[in-house]
Amino acid sequence: MSRVTDPNTVGSLAATLVNMFGGAAAQVHGDAATQISTVTHDSRAVDSGTLFACLRGGRVDGHDFAEAAVEAGASALLVDHRLDGATVGGVTQLIVDDTRLRLGPIAATLMDDPSRRMTTVGITGTNGKTTTSLMIESILVAHGQRVGVIGTLNGPRTTPEAPELQQRLAEFVADDCSTAVLEVSSHALALHRVDGTHFDAVVFTNFGHDHLDLHGTPEEYFRAKASLFDVRFAPLAVINIDDTHGQLLTDVIAGNDGPSMRVVAYSVSELVDVEVTATSLSYEWNGHRIHVAIGGAFNVSNSLAAVVTATELGVPIDDVISGLGRLDAIPGRFETVTWPTGVDGGFSVIVDYAHTPDGLTEVIAAARAVVDESASVIVVFGCGGDRDQGKRAGMGAAAAAGADRVIVTSDNPRSEAPMQIIGDVVAGVSSNYRDRVTLNPDRRQAIGEALDVAQSGDIVVIAGKGHEKTQDLGDSVVEFDDRAVAQSFMESSSR
């Protein structure tokens, strides 16, 4: 294999991979001096100077698109075996042991390792990633930093594929960001999207039932989450030990051979004088009073994760307090839908992204904690189609056990029949609670029904879609924002 000095050649990329992973990691077939400026796995995004990555997926094999990529102008191919030269026109091939494993480091190299040119924080966990990331952002902004955030609110994927991820990190650097905060999904970890990214700290919020359609078992799901907590990613781990899997994670890290991460554990047990309402929370931590303009008991833990992470990164406590104090409401995260000006309907309406059994349990408990004992908690929710079917019964069980009234409806049914999904949900409802549950596959009607039956002092929780502004019906995607729909009913009832 020829070695070249230009950092943007196929040969130098191969040399980088060999240095990282050993002699079997990469070899070049063709001209090692071929110039590369970018990498993509999408043949539709190919241009001159592009390295086209042939990724193997569950349904398609990117190697089948190599010819189309060459015809579109790809300068080289990233492959896991040598392709027939007649098929790909003699274009240079970078042959690696696993294209998905090597895509992240290649993308990071082409972008000049942007994560190492900022303070970079990664957050993983079943629930709480978005809220925690925006809390950390608000603290860092109060500290005078410019912050870039990548997560559920910033694109179609919580964590983008490696080329897009590294491109966005590079854009943060170009935009003079001093810090990047990333939500790191289990999909991203299992599919190696963050490989090649350096984090200064990684955070574990909690673990529950989700994404078993990809991972197969809870054990594999946890293994994916746990893979972030390795010195190859970060020197510092901030872990919620109120969660049993958080405690397990600390034990796993402690038992690792070789260099280990520094672990900072956090627990709400260390807090004093905790106060929670529907729209705010406060507590004393290490002798300092923390106020947050977001309600929900589960957000106490999320805010503590942000506090601990920020202080470990050297942020003064005054900036921590200031940042959390001025935090705006987070879209679709225990977000209060306000009544029209001058109108008080007598009950509260909350929209939340809760889409797992644990998440729904927590949001219902948080809602109950902010109303009188005599008041009712009314929940509207559904489960997404073409996603983890195993959690549906658990969602039904959680809702019926925790709420006084439950309306099971559609979420994003996609290609599945809405009533089939609803049936899977209801199958988890205990016979003791069945009388609490009604069914309405029309989400708009279900929300209207919940608001119609709510009495003074009650609280209505609309769960599952949170910040989303569309609904995927399979044959079409329509505009649908839970907050706007609820608001329209509230406005009409006030006339």
Task: Find the CATH superfamily of the largest domain.
Answer: Mur-like, catalytic domain
Q: What is Rg?
A: 24 Å
Largest sheet: 6 strands, parallel
**CATH class descriptor of the largest domain:** Alpha Beta
> How far apart are the first and last residues' alpha carbons, in Å?
77 Å
**Number of helices, counting only DSSP H or I runs of 4 residues or more:** 17
- Number of extended strands: 22
- Estimate percent helicity: 25-40%
Q: Which structural class is indicated by helix and strand composition?
A: alpha/beta
Mean pLDDT over all positions = 93
The 3D shape can be described as: globular
Count of domain modules: 3
Q: What spatial order of strands do you see in the largest sheet?
A: 7-8-6-9-10-11
Instruction: Kindly estimate the percentage of residues that lie in beta strands according to DSSP.
Output: 15-25%
Structure description:
The chain has 495 residues and is of the alpha/beta class. It has helices at residues 10-21, 66-71, 85-88, 99-110, 129-142, 162-174, 186-190, 212-215, 218-226, 244-255, 298-312, 317-325, 357-369, 392-402, 418-426, 443-453, 482-494, and strands at residues 26-29, 38-40, 50-53, 76-79, 92-96, 119-124, 147-150, 179-183, 201-204, 236-240, 262-266, 272-276, 281-285, 288-292, 335-336, 348-352, 377-381, 405-408, 437-439, 459-463, 470-472, 477-479. It has a six-stranded parallel beta sheet with strand order 7-8-6-9-10-11, sandwiched between helices. It has a six-stranded mixed beta sheet with strand order 15-16-20-17-18-19, sandwiched between helices. A five-stranded mixed beta sheet has the order 1-5-4-3-2.
